[in-house]
Amino acid sequence: MTSPAPHPLDTVFAALADPTRRAILTMLLEDDMAVTDVAHPFAMSLAAISKHLAVLADAGLITQEKRGRVKWCKLEPDALRAASVWMQGFGQFDPVDLDAFERFLASELPEDSEI
Amino acid sequence: MTSPAPHPLDTVFAALADPTRRAILTMLLEDDMAVTDVAHPFAMSLAAISKHLAVLADAGLITQEKRGRVKWCKLEPDALRAASVWMQGFGQFDPVDLDAFERFLASELPEDSEI
DNA sequence: GGGATCGTCAACCGGTTGGTTGAATATGCG
DNA sequence: CGCATATTCAACCAACCGGTTGACGATCCC
User: Fold this and answer.
1) B17-28 residue pLDDT tens
2) Contacting residues of B for A111, CB less than 8 Å apart
3) Domain A8-108, what fold?
């Protein structure tokens, strides 16, 4: 609370700078997930994933709703809008190049065996 | 050199996560600049700006060409393409909303700048 | 109640980041 | 040459990051 509140783009870009967090976002593109299920494909502790999810939530990229004892994670793609707009200012980047996206998606998803 | 070479998106997003570096990119949108001139509007040492420029260059977001004793910094907006494509995969974000960009530009430029 | 599951908290650790200073290296110029 | 300008290098520092482990509070279910 005492910190001078960083620019929203700071937290969004910082959240996106980690491959684990980008992979999580990609997974959530499919469907909402519980924390434990998010953690499953990764070779790291549940606590680590919990922290990553907190970072994503702080950036507004996901929301977490606790239902019963399981906490559901939901993608909030609108949080990317400001960042996307900022980048668009530097040029028009193939607004809808889904082929390229599929390639990135494939290269970013955890391989289940190892990340 | 021993590090396992991070994903390109890691370095690009990490570079964008700092407001000083985003401001530098915005300045370079206007024109190529020398390191000293880049540093001028900021309230920090030249060495600090030099480091920021190294981060941007490492991410491929700028190139630096030394001509005489002055090193010119040039924006390389193509480096944003992969990041932009990645984000577009989460939704179409107003591909060309330049009004919004102008607002962000105004809010991101260093205060005393008349660049 | 009691045990298993879900998730976070707290403390710790090594590595990185963003900044500082002061010295060093080029280069241009009178 | 000798000095000013342009930029980086090196060492240092506090703060942050990404990860671990172990203990803990909730919640479900028998």
Assistant:
1) 999 999 999 999
2) none
3) Arc Repressor Mutant, subunit A (1.10.10)
CB A93 to CB B85 under 8 A?
yes
Question: And the tokens for A30?
Answer: 């499919």
Q: pLDDT, tens digit, for every residue of B64-112?
A: 999 999 999 999 999 999 899 899 888 866 544 445 545 544 555 444 4
The third-level CATH classification (topology) of the domain covering B8-107 is Arc Repressor Mutant, subunit A (1.10.10)
CB within 8 Å of B78: residues ≥ 6 apart: A91
Instruction: Give chain C positions with protein CB within 7 A.
Output: 5-10, 16-23, 26-28
- Best of B3, B10, B11, B13 to disrupt the A interface by mutation (most A CBs within 10 Å)? B13
Q: Do B93 and A84 touch (CB under 8 A)?
A: yes
| Burial per residue of A43-82, b for 16 or more beta-carbon CB atoms within 10 angstroms, e otherwise | eeeeeebeebbebbbebbbbebeeeeeebbbebbbebbbb
